[in-house]
Design a protein that fits this description.
The complex is a heterodimer of chains A (283) and B (258). Chain A has 283 residues and is an all-alpha fold. Chain A has two domains: 55 residues, no CATH class; 221 residues, MetI-like fold (Orthogonal Bundle). Helix content of chain A is 83%, strand content 0%. Chain B is α/β, with parallel strands linked by helices and 258 residues long. The model of chain B has no long low-confidence stretch (mean pLDDT 86). At the A-B interface, α1, α7 and α8 of A face α5 of B. The structure holds adenosine-5'-diphosphate and magnesium ion. The site of magnesium ion (MG) has 2 residues of chain B, from α1.
């Protein structure tokens, strides 16, 4: 017994130090490597245009994109369009997440319900969601309702599948621990099931959000007077490639920020599995 | 007082896993159940724990019928089954959710100290070794102060050194409050070290084949001749339990054939 005590006393002190010292170095090396190629391309293209090898009309150089971007931001246009798009994504994401979570949880929990509704949902999932656009426009008109619905449909499926899979794969042995401590109903859900499905749920939310951003573009292509998607179409029709790229950059930045928000908000609840996740999150 | 009255179990798939087991365990008694793989040891333990309901007979604790997990009955499984999202302290305090925080914290600290893991309180289960994790599981089961503690091959996944260490640990903890221990094991030494009474089971259907008293003084000396005598006794019973009932007849028939 004293042997076990001794080894137990030595272990914890050594571990955290090593972790912290290493992470500062390795943490930035990966991302920095990834930046080299885009930087070379951007600088190369800028120099090529400046040197007169290309007029840069179809593929604007970084300086022109930056100028367009700041002009859009200065006039407040960018903010207005970004806000419109963000509002659509959030509305569609909210609806898709709520419905997907509820249906996913019920079908994951109950074999009967799963047999009853999952085949239909899987059949619907096989339809490319953009194919719904004409129907949604007929049913809901060309304004916000049809757009938000399309986004919600896009968000729904990954969330539904993720939650159903997570609930179905909760470890029976862990549930049994809950039973042995006489948990049932709400307490079983709160103390065992919810924490058990949370990691998979966060992944489902993130892929749902990714699809939400994808579908908002499709939705705004089908006719919108504002939104980043409108900037894209407008840039194409008026022959302003710099505006298109500026809108794409805005999409990338806002999309990444919303993804970070999900990760950041849920991170405190997932600390217990961070060691397992960190290599994947880096890439 | 824990009593099993004709406890039998037939699973939904028709497997007759357990047949009319009668057993009576007095306060503070340690009973070991040994037997070959598949002879219904886990089935029996799960019936006592209330996690499964027996098909026949009943389990009584202090005159009360056990039909579902009971607050006076704790269970330790072969794997630690710690909840990975709770710290070590959170796991130990899992069964004390309804107590005031101050009391819960005090009892968790006490239990962790008792199993020699107080400095691991804020660690995650994944940061523990197998033996440490199982000690946390023992603390978690004991902290609500059960009257009956069930253990299903609790140390079988551990190396021999850790196993012996945990056996001593378990005895130390048992001495604190002296609950009934019902321990399933396939390690005869473990049974002889821990138990007052050793039940040998035989399979198909599972039932109690023999009962051996291990009335050695504690602490028990694993090298003593008395220990060895009980061990041989159990081994012999196990041997017989694994032989088919009709073995002798079959032998005679075979002899005749030749
Ligand atoms: N959930 C179950 N459903 C059907 N049969 C089972 C189940 N659990 C165990 N059995 C069967 O019951 C018998 C006894 O199993 P078990 O109690 O686990 O044995 P032991 O713990 O002694 O190895 C075995 O034949 C096993 O296959
Ligand atoms: Mg077993």
């Amino acid at each position: 017994m004293s042997l076990v005590r001794m080894s137990a006393a030595i272990e914890p002190a050594a571990q955290p130090k090593q972790k912290a010292g290493k992470s500062v170095l390795t943490r930035w090396r990966g991302p920095a490597l990834g930046l080299i190629l885009p930087l070379i391309l951007a600088v190369g293209w800028e120099l090529a245009v400046r040197a007169g090898f290309s007029n840069g009309r179809l593929v604007p150089p970084p300086s022109v994109i930056y100028a367009t971007f700041s002009e859009l931001a200065r006039t407040g246009e960018l903010q207005r369009h970004a806000a419109a798009t963000l509002a659509r994504v959030l509305a569609g994401f909210g609806i898709g997440v709520i419905v997907g979570t509820l249906l996913g949880a019920i079908t994951g929990y109950s074999l009967l319900v799963r047999r009853f509704i999952d085949p239909s949902l899987q059949a619907l999932r096989a339809i490319p969601s953009i194919a719904w656009v004409p129907l949604f426009i007929l049913w809901l008109g060309i304004f916000e309702a049809s757009k938000v619905t399309l986004i919600a449909v896009g968000v729904f499926f990954p969330v539904y599948l993720g939650v159903m899979g997570a609930v179905m794969s909760v470890d029976r042995k862990i549930v049994e621990v809950g039973r042995a401590f006489r948990l049932s109903g709400v307490k079983m859900v709160r103390r065992i099931l919810l924490p058990a499905v949370l990691p998979a749920y966060v992944i489902a939310l993130r892929s749902g959000l990714g699809l939400g951003w994808m579908f908002v573009v499709a939705a705004e292509f089908m006719g919108a007077s504002e939104g980043l998607g409108f900037l894209l179409v407008d840039g194409q029709q008026l022959g302003k490639p710099a505006q298109i790229v500026a809108a794409i950059v805005a999409f990338a930045v806002i999309g990444k920020i919303t993804d970070w928000l999900i990760v950041g908000i849920t991170a405190p609840f997932l600390r217990w599995e961070d060691r397992f996740k960190s290599p994947a999150a880096e890439g | 007082m824990l009593t099993l009255e004709g406890v039998g179990k037939t699973y939904a798939n028709g497997v007759h896993a357990l047949d009319a087991v009668n057993l009576s365990v007095g306060p503070g008694e340690i009973v070991a159940i040994v037997g070959g793989s598949g002879c219904g040891k886990s089935t029996l333990l799960r019936a006592i724990s209330g996690l499964d309901t027996p098909s026949q007979g009943r389990v009584m604790l202090d005159g009360e019928k056990v039909t579902k997990p009971h607050e006076k009955i704790g269970i330790i499984f072969q794997e630690p089954r710690l909840l990975p999202w709770l710290t070590v302290a959170g796991n130990v305090g899992f069964g004390l959710e309804d107590r005031p925080k101050a009391e819960r914290d005090a009892r968790v600290v006490e239990a962790l100290t008792r199993v020699g893991l107080s400095e691991k309180a804020d660690m995650w289960p994944r940061e523990l070794s197998g033996g440490q994790a199982q000690r946390v599981a023992i603390a978690r089961a004991l902290v609500p102060r059960p009257e009956v503690l069930l253990l299903d091959e609790p140390f079988s996944a551990l190396d021999a050194f850790t196993r012996v260490d945990l056996q001593d640990h378990l005895l130390g903890l048992w001495a604190d409050t002296r609950p009934i221990l019902v321990l399933v094991t396939h390690d005869v030494d473990e049974a002889v070290v821990l138990a007052d009474r050793i039940m040998v089971m035989r399979p198909r259907p599972g039932r109690i084949f023999d009962e051996i008293a291990a009335d050695l003084p504690r602490p028990r000396e694993r090298q003593s001749s008395a220990f060895d005598r009980v061990r041989r006794h159990v081994m012999a019973a196990l041997d017989r339990s694994l032989k088919p009932v009709a073995k002798s007849d079959a032998n005679e028939a075979a002899a005749f054939w030749w």
